[in-house]
Model the fold of this input.
Amino acid sequence: MDASGVSHISARKVEALFAALLIRADQVVRAEQLIGEIWVDQAPRRANAGLHVYVSQLRKFLHRDGRTDPIVTRLPGYLLHTGDDELDVRTFLHLVEAGRVGLRDGRPEQAAARLEQALALWRGPVLGDLPRGVLGEGFATWLMEERLQGLEMLVDARLQIGRHRELVGRLYALTTEHPLHEAFYRQLMLALYRSERQAEALHVYQNARQTLNVELGIEPCRALQELQRAILVADDRLSVLSAA
Done:
């Protein structure tokens, strides 16, 4: 436990076990799945015995201060009860869904507030630098996709409430970080156009087109193409259209 009162697991394999049980919290995780997360593709011959040792160590860690042991042995593996404990991932998903509902119901300011709260929960890469088995890799991919959707919806909400000028820098960074995510190019083009930067908006389209051609051999999606044409003719609807 550090000075802030936060407890840490120092053993990497116990940490990997805990992560796997948390990913499937309140569900039975098969022993072979846990072994795959602890050793990935290098499980020793006595992996089952090793698993029992690590479960015992994790139980000791979680059972401190008189707390009830949350790990239940249940064939064909183990189950981690979360009880009243709140997991950041569940809070994140709840807030993202609240943001999605707010956008759908025409409440962009409320949606933006919820999505900002959700994204503020991120502290770094999913599962940190832990080795990942099939379970961990799938979880990380899924959660990163949820984060991307949250970012995209947050930009949509801010565009709808007229905060296009402050979005430009962030969207340039997002198109660099996610060069194949066409929605960010589309949002950047709209933010630039609404900021009276038409030429730059068209230049973004050309950059997106070149990137997609080189990397995937495809043309931009219909939404990007239609936005480019609308910018070329200064379509009046762009001043009020959202990026959705």
